[in-house]
Amino acid sequence: MSDQLARRPQRSHDPALGEDPMTSTALTITSDAHAERVTVHLAGEVDISNADLLRNTLLQHFRNGHTTVTIDMSGLTFIDCAGLSALMRARNDARDHSGSIHLDGVVQHSVVRIMHLTGILQAFPPPGAAPISY
């Protein structure tokens, strides 16, 4: 089963048109659910304008009975501190629902770098691994 959960259109900022540079950035979230497992695919950018959408999407999967959530980040091109916070909060949600959350496909250099520097990568087990004890 695949479903499109959220899509925000890409916008470019043109000061001559008076556009607001603080509008939502493009983030596409899709999910493939199979029994108690779900893979959440991210494409685009996660920042303060859409981090709550990511966190709420992940939380809803746990509330719907999925016990294992894998986040496919291969399409992610940027993540800021709000996005990192959403991931850490989702990790806590997983624990609260006796579930596990895994990151997969962390390949974009800027995403890998910020996640490594902040220690976020070490906080998540790779897909297929046993959940980390908190």
What does this structure look like?
- The longest helix is centred in the middle third of the chain and has 16 residues, at 81-96.
- The chain has a five-stranded mixed β-sheet.
- The relative contact order is 0.15.
- The N and C termini lie far apart (31 Å).
- The protein has three helices and five strands.
- Helix 1 runs parallel beside helix 2 (81-96).
- The radius of gyration is 15 Å and the shape is globular.
- By secondary structure, the chain is an alpha/beta fold.
- Strand 3 (37-46), helix 1 and strand 4 (68-79) form a beta-alpha-beta unit.
Which helices and strands appear, and what pairs or packs with what?
Layout: E1 2-7, E2 27-34, E3 37-46, H1 51-63, E4 68-79, H2 81-96, E5 100-104, H3 109-118
Parallel strand pairs: 3-4, 4-5
Antiparallel strand pairs: 1-2, 2-3
Brief digest:
The chain is α/β, with parallel strands linked by helices and 134 residues long. Helices cover 29% and strands 31% of the residues.
Structural class: alpha/beta
Q: Would you identify the regions where 5 or more consecutive residues have pLDDT less than 50?
A: 1-19
Tell me the major beta sheet: 5 strands, mixed
Proportion in helices: 25-40%
Computed CA radius of gyration, to the nearest angstrom: 15 Å
Mean of pLDDT: 84
Q: Give the termini separation.
A: 31 Å
Number of strands: 5
Attribute tags:
134 residues; alpha/beta; 29% helix; disordered N terminus
